[in-house]
Amino acid sequence: MKNKKSRTTVALDSLGCKLNQAEIQSLARKLEAAGYKVVAPDAQADIFILNTCTVTHVADRKSRHLLRQARRRSPKARLIAVGCYAHRSPADLEKIDGVELVLGNDRKTDLPDLLKDPTLQPPAPFPPARPHTARRTRAFLKIQDGCHNYCAYCIVPYVRSNEYCVPADDVLAQINDLLAEGCQEVVLTGTEIGDYQSGEVNLTGLISRILSETTLPRLRLSSLQPYHISPELVELWQDVRLCTHFHLSLQSGSNSVLKRMKRRYSTSDYTKAVELICKKVPDVAITTDVIVGFPDETDVEFKESLGFCRSMQFARIHVFPFSPRPGTAAATMPNPLPDSLKKERSNQMLALSKQSVIAFHERFIGKTLDVLWEQQSGGFWSGLTGNYIKVYIESSKALANRITPVRLVKLYHGGILGNIYGT
Known about the structure:
Shape: globular
Number of strands: 21
CATH topology of the largest domain: Transcription Regulator spoIIAA
Oligomer: single chain
Largest sheet: 5 strands, parallel
Strand order of the largest sheet: 2-1-3-4-5
């Protein structure tokens, strides 16, 4: 029997997008406030909660793997699966040994109340645990959910169909709560944050209010679509607290493939958005997502996509081989490509991504940028610049959750090795 003063331990983990990370961070805070002891995702725990992803078949497999791994690590733990895969195919997850509860996106907000079941109830509430260092440093904040675009390849509108925007006043209140915890950077996230609209406040208005009504040191945005980029939005980057990083979805650099994907822009539209950003935001990093091997993608179309990505000089390209999702239009399209060809094209695009990362990083060797330090390992601290470069320094100083200027010296471990300015 447990000591009556012990708290029920909960490990939480998340797969997939920043929205999933925002949701799991929010849930962790609620559970801490309710008296649970939140532990690291890979720690032994009484309860393990996974926010699943289903954007590809690989994400499905990883979700199942993490639940089975948690079962092996904590044989008596109660396993709970929530999120997109749980929404799309709950039966798949219910088959896994130890999984007692599967909640889709329409019900996962009920989880704190469902945990009041006597079999899952924690002891009498204790004072909330001190927030984890990682959460204090940089937090993901959900401002919007739901999508109605129905791109041909995408499962998201089917598992996140309820569109919702968090009221602007609530967003500001949450940011002030995070500031009170010591948070230095907030990442605004959602399914389509560019569609944010709460009363008269759109995304541009929300950002303006955050910058004028809070003392947040750093504000970063998650993914945007090219048609979300406007002069009014980009003008806000005159404020140095806005991180100089745009993740701008592409998916293909071929207009004919974009049309089959049912994307709402052309490569010309995309180019204009990038040019507007680069004109107004010095030292900006533009990252993107690209799908290779879409049904009936020809050699010519793939070369168009590869060439377009090269011309954009991205800071990084996230590459995804096409994965048919049941129920989407692309899942039944004719002329699917063999896995071998998808792998070959993925490797070519990944090679370009690697070249792009190096070229972007080399532009900043010798420059001084501010870095938010997050963690220490093996005597090295690591953190991120505003334009999303991972920086390392060798230091014995306590740097966690501090922002310092750093002179960037040389390429190192996929990032840049630096010296704190003035040392």
